[in-house]
Amino acid sequence: MDATVDGRVPPDDPARTATSAPPNCPHRPQEQHHPQPHQPQWNLTTDNAHASLPGAIQRKSRSNDRSKERAEPGAALEPADHYGDDGGGPRGRGSSDKLVVHLIIGFRDICVFTLVLPLGTLFVCFVSAYVFQPEEIHETHCRVYNIIPSISAITGVSPQRYLWRVSIALHIGPRFIIAFVYRNWYRAMVAGLNDPARVTKACRMINIVYWLNLVEISALCGVTYISNKENYPLHEKVFIIFMTTSLSYMLATLKLLKILQPDGPQTPNEESSLRYKQAFFALSIASTVGLILFFLKHRFLCQDLAFSWFALCEYIVASANMGFHCTTMLDFPTEHFLIAQNAKQYKKQQTSLGWKVD
Predict the structure, then answer these.
(1) What confidence tier does 98 reach under pLDDT thresholds 50, 70, 90?
(2) Is 167 exposed, middle or buried (0-12, 13-18, 19+ CB in 10 A)?
(3) d(CA 115, CA 108)
C-alpha cells in the first residue's frame, strides 16, 4: 500500500474512507499538513497496513467500547479521573462506595446532654449566687423581703453570667438539630395518612410547630445574652416572646400529634411521650398563670415574698419546658446521629436541613 508525499492515504484506500472525519464536521476542521524534512508524519488511522510506512509513528488506539461511545452522537465523554459529587476527592479505579462512619452518637445521648447541661448549670449558678452574692440577687425595685431569686437574677451577676452563657451556647446547637429531626419525623408520619384534608392540615401544622420551635430557641438566646441588669426593657420583651412561643409550641405539638395519630399512640413509647407532653404542658400553663399573677403583685403592689413566688413559678416553668423537650428520648429511643462518607445515596429530599417554608 502506497502513501502520498504528505503522508495521507490515497482516496481509493478503504481505510481512509472508514476512519476519516467528514469534511463538513464543524468540530473537526480540516488541517493542512506541511511536512518538513527529517520529521516523521503522524498517521491518524489504526490500520495495521500502515505499519510498513517508513518513518510513520502509530498512536495507540482506544478500546473498542470507548471508540463506539465516541462514535455515537450525543455520547458524553467522561474523564478518566474526576471528582465525585460528594467532594471526597478524585474518584478513580480504586475508589470505594462503602459507607465510612466518622462519628456516631446516640440521639438519646444528645437529648440527655441538652437537659443536663442547662439544668446543672442553673443549679450551680443558684447555689453560688445564693451563698456568695445574696445582696445582689435579692435586690428589686420595691426593696421588699424575698428569699428566692429569679433565674434572671442568678444568671445576671458575675461570674455566673459567663457560665450560663457558655452553657446555653453549647445547648443551642443540639436544640436546632432536634427541631430539624422532628420536622422530618412528622413528615414521615404524614405518609401514613389517607385523608387528603388531614394531610393538608398536618403539613400546615408541621410548619407551624417547626417555626415556633425555632423562634423559641432564638428567644432563649436573647433572654440569655441580654441581661436584665444591662437592658431590662428589651430583656422583658424577649422573655415574653419566649414564654408565648414556648406555650404555643407545646399546644401546637399536641394538636399535631392528634392529627398524625387519629387512632392514638401505637407503641408504649409513643403513649408515654404523649402523656408526659400533656402533663408538662398543663404544669406550664398553671405555672405561667401564677407567674403573671405574682409578677403583677410585685410590680404594682410591692407585696412581701411576691417576687419569691414569681421566681418559684419561673423555675417550674423552666423545668416543665425542659421536660417537654426531653420527651425526645421517648420519641427517638434507638436513633443515632451519624457523620459518614459516601452517605449521599441515603439522602432524601424530605430529610434536608432547609429553612424554606413549604
Answers:
(1) confident
(2) buried
(3) 11
Query: Which string of b and e fits 17-42 if b means at least 16 CB within 10 Å?
Result: eeeeeeeeeeeeeeeeeeeeeeeebe
The predicted-structure confidence for 326-339, as pLDDT tens digits, reads as follows: 999 999 988 888 88
Concatenate the DSSP letters of all residues of 315-331 into one string.
Answer: HHHHHHHHHHHTTHHHH
pLDDT of residue 223: 92
Nearest to 217 by CA among 241, 235, 237, 196: 241
CA 43/CA 46 separation, integer angstroms: 8
* Amino acid code (one letter) for 329: M
Res. 287: pLDDT tops 70: yes
Beta bridge partners of 300: none
* pTM exceeding 0.90: no
In the numeric block, which cell numbers belong to residue 97? 462506595
Contact 227, 154 (CB under 8 A): no
Among 29, 26, 23, 21, smallest CA distance to 71 is for 21
Helices and strands in the chain: count of H runs, count of E runs: 11, 6
Give me the DSSP letters along 3-17.
--TTSPPPTT-HHHH
Whole-angstrom Cα distance, residue 296 to residue 27? 83
Beta carbons within 8 Å of 141's beta carbon, 6+ residues apart: none
Distance from C-alpha of 209 to C-alpha of 245, rounded to nearest angstrom: 10
Residues in a beta bridge with 105: 337
Instruction: State the average pLDDT over residues 219-236.
Output: 89
Number of neighbours of residue 320 by Cβ within 10 angstroms: 23
pLDDT, tens digit, 9 for 90 and up, residues 111-146: 888 888 999 999 999 999 999 988 888 877 777 888
Q: Which of 333, 326, 198 is nearest to 260 (CA)?
A: 198
- CA nearest 178: which of 245, 254, 121, 110? 110
